[in-house]
Amino acid sequence: MTNQLSRWGAPLTYVSTVVLVAAMLISVLGRSPDTRSNFQETAVGYDRTDVALVGEVDTFDGLRDELGTDPVSMYVGAGCANCHGLSGEGGVVGPDIWGKNAEDMLEAIRDGDHGMPAFDEQRLTDVQVEALVAYLNELREEEESMTGTTSGS
Length: 153
What we know:
The chain is mainly alpha-helical. It has helices at 2-31, 33-39, 71-77, 80-84, 102-111, 126-147. Helix 3 crosses helix 6 and helix 5 crosses helix 6.
């Protein structure tokens, strides 16, 4: 008798485990509201939670060719934030541009040095560059006043 038990014990355990796991999967998938909603108009006995909005809804007007006069819109719209970080603190690709003067920034923007694209006068005017520099320097001053540090640039 012990010979038969050891001979059939392992295969029976394996088969019963597979059958048990298959039965559990079928019962979970069959009872899941998400699975049922794939096959029915609405899942019977299951109400989805409404999406809750916290704060105001911001509308996205889409990307425009005109960058306007708002320095934040210009900085993000021209793609500066992609490389230089949201505040000009430097990013993975672009260096820190805090503390740069308008002449240096204008030269870098017009020439497009070190992999940076060049922006001509039609895309970004001198007045817009000056507004960007003032905005970035204001951000730097706010950061320094909050942290109590000064940048070395």
